[in-house]
Amino acid sequence: MSVLDLLLGNRNKSKLKSAFKAAGLTRKIKRRGQAKDLEILPTIHSVRYLDKRTEFVFTLPNGVDPELVAKNDYVFKQYLGTQTEISGNLKRFVVNVYKGRMPSQFDYAYTDTDHRLPIICGINRVGELVTYDMALTPHLLITGETGAGKSTQLRSVITQLILSRGPDQLRLVLGDLKMSEFHVFRNLAHVEAVCYNAGELTKQLDWVDGELKKRGKLLNEHELTHISELPSPPPAIVVAIDEFALLREEKAVMRVVEDISAIGRALDVYLVLSQQRADKDVMNGRLKQNLTVRMAFRAADAINSRITIGSGEAAEISIEDRGRFYLKREQLEILQGPFLSVEKARALLKPYKRRGVDSSDSPHKGEYPVPTLNDPLGLLGDSPAGFAGGDDDA
Ligand SMILES: Nc1ncnc2c1ncn2[C@@H]1O[C@H](COP(=O)(O)OP(=O)(O)OP(=O)(O)O)[C@@H](O)[C@H]1O
């Protein structure tokens, strides 16, 4: 630790104490015979001077509402700088004050991970790649204002999934209600269908609904807790819908989506939903609660941000910071999402292109076993490895 670190650390420690007071995280105790109350501040337990950040650990006095910490995160930023992040719950919290600036862009590249269904989220303040396994932490909600970067994130999420799993291990049902984002995924071996309206999506979700029932029965018959325990398990299914809010009046769609959110994990069926905001007009509480991982891109205001991530911070993301978002799992963390252009995605996905098949008319409605890697949909005759690898969009 350098002398400069120590000086900065001490200065930040006193700023942290001022932030505690301004954020109302103190408890006042009346003292007999004394005019002034005794003010009990949170206890700072440790200060660590690390390479790229200074870390403070503090605990709240008993009786102080822990919700106040998230609600007043802006106060900590006002006192300690915008490079400040807080995480924790109930009593113990960690404040990190970062030295560098967030990276402004980073380009998507396929990343090998140990995850079965890898989600590449982005890079954090110190340049580390943040990933997680959707099979372990299911159902993702992406929100943000127009132009904040939701569709780009969806593109890289779906591309990474396709590049990580064969079409015999992963089936995708895609909903593109804006008719603008998912054309790059049309006619790919993994893709059941790209749906452009509620009618098409309802048809595909009927199939998913059938899978839920069939898989549920299998679990029951074989007395298993997860469908992947079967000797030859069916493929994972990911239903990804951009601008999900446009479907709010579609009862048939909503019913299946809610069912997936409630029982999909054990059946290897997952959701990725994207929309501008997540208030109760566009998404009911039960569904939202089951979307356990949240990515909040720039929000219109603190209320919208709070609805997604429980904190107002996504409203503070600058309009210039496209692709910047807050990831909420157990903790809240700011990330820069990978940039993946349509052209690059198309080039990466080219080996999985199917020839002469309209993906809106999905052939994958059969019984198990599922298609094999060599002939993913049983339609390609003797095409090498089952993939055409050269055609443009049909
Ligand atoms: N991760 C990123 N890194 C750098 N630039 C990005 C990133 N994501 C998005 N952008 C830029 O922001 C623009 C808008 O992104 P995108 O279309 O993904 O936003 P959106 O939230 O889906 O908007 P809309 O709801 O209007 O479709 C992109 O064309 C791109 O130039």
From TrEMBL:
One Pfam family hit: FtsK_SpoIIIE
Domain FtsK: 127-306
Keyword annotations from UniProtKB, A to Z: ATP-binding, Nucleotide-binding
Species whose genome carries this gene: Pullulanibacillus pueri
Coiled coil: none
GO molecular function ontology, one term from the record: DNA binding
SUPFAM superfamilies listed in its UniProt record: P-loop containing nucleoside triphosphate hydrolases (SSF52540)
PANTHER family according to UniProt: SPORULATION PROTEIN RELATED, TYPE VII SECRETION SYSTEM PROTEIN ESSC
Region annotation (Disordered) ranges: 353-394
Protein name: FtsK domain-containing protein
Binding site for ATP: G144, E145, T146, G147, A148, G149, K150, S151
Biased composition (Basic and acidic residues): 355-367
